[in-house]
Amino acid sequence: MEGFGDKKIIDLTLTLTNEMNGVSITEARNLAKDGWNASTLELYSHVGTHMDAPLHFEVNSQSIDEIPVARFISKAWVVDLSHIGPSGLITVADMAPIAATIQKGESVILQTGWSKKVGTKGYRDELPRISKELALWLGEKGVGLLGVEPPSVADVNNIDEVTEIHTILMKNDILIVEGLTNLDQLSKSQVTLIATPLKILRGDGAPARVLALE
């Protein structure tokens, strides 16, 4: 968390490890034998902290490499949702702290504390979910990016729900970043968010490095 000018920088990115489903890191070269160290990485496109592209649900044909880079840096509002329990629905009422102030193009980060459950069954199977009414509200507000701690914005075990919520958000041109962490280190209600996915040709999504400046 070194400073950048008068800004504090917080890393909101999960560390990719071989213990994660969808990650394989193996040795490709080593210094003693080959003269340098190098690894071979095999990554599921939606592993860890990642960004979805509309192609993920074929809402439209836009792939991760086609998203304008200007959208990767934004002003973001942090909403404390630590009261939301397992499998809880996040509603428009929960947005009361920012409802009157958020502007079109700004981002929303939902702080649920869910990243503390990484590595447990509940992290994936009991995640807090974006309600349909909230997804529509975010679209009406013109939100540019939605960032959440769980690995998805909706119940991944309910194909109808996960499809509906992703589709509503993507039809409203909202970037989706899932798998955030360290949100408890944020002390401001508004930050500058930097979310940069790997540039993968025709990618349906990609792991991303996500930083907050406050």
UniProtKB/TrEMBL annotation:
GO terms for molecular function: arylformamidase activity. It comes from the Bacteria. It holds the Pfam family Cyclase. Signal peptide: none annotated. InterPro entries: KFase/CYL, KFase_sf. GO terms for biological process: L-tryptophan catabolic process to kynurenine. This is Putative cyclase. It comes from Croceitalea dokdonensis DOKDO 023.
